[in-house]
Amino acid sequence: MKIVFVRGSSMFPVIKTGDILLFSTSKYTKDQFNRNEIVLLKTKNSSKSLLIKRIIGLPGDNVQAKNGQIFIDGIKSTELPINDSYSGKEIAKSWKLTKNQYFVCGDFREYSTDSRNFGPILFEQIVGRFPMRIWPIFKIGYIG
Q1: Which of 10, 77, 112, 115 is catalytic?
Q2: How far apart are CA 13 and CA 83, in angstroms?
Q3: Is 26 in the active site?
Q4: What is the C-alpha separation between 134 and 142, in angstroms, rounded?
Q5: Strand partners, 94
Q6: Which of 90, 97, 126, 131 has the fewest other C-beta atoms within 10 Å?
Q7: What are 54's strand-pairing partners?
Q8: What are the residue ranges of helices labelled H in 3-144?
Q9: Is 53 a catalytic residue?
Q10: Is residue 80 scored above 60 in pLDDT?
Q11: Residue 43: partners with Cβ closer than 8 Å, 6 or more residues away
């Protein structure tokens, strides 16, 4: 188990600054992850720097970011919840995910640094899943 103190708004409104989350760090395999699942991941530059993101693209997917939208195999992604105020400032990009890659995004796209910026993540970067909010006390429970 890994306790995480949230700082930042990239997953707003589902996860907010000040929330305290508990992530499962049990062993898992590549085929156990689901689209829209929230995961804890380490950045490529530092094993101490952790990010909370939602899996949008799975291994084998063709992912395209254009006009503020994400397309999976040519179909507009309908992941929820998402803060739709994002204006789509990024340049159109596309990725073909390998068997070891995932595409992750924050729910509050305007304030999220994610796969649109740093590209797909590797399976080995995912260090936790099944987040449970343990603070604030009136919001205790699993987050989906």
Answers
A1: 10
A2: 8
A3: no
A4: 9
A5: 64
A6: 90
A7: 38, 105
A8: 115-118
A9: yes
A10: no
A11: 49, 50, 51, 118, 125
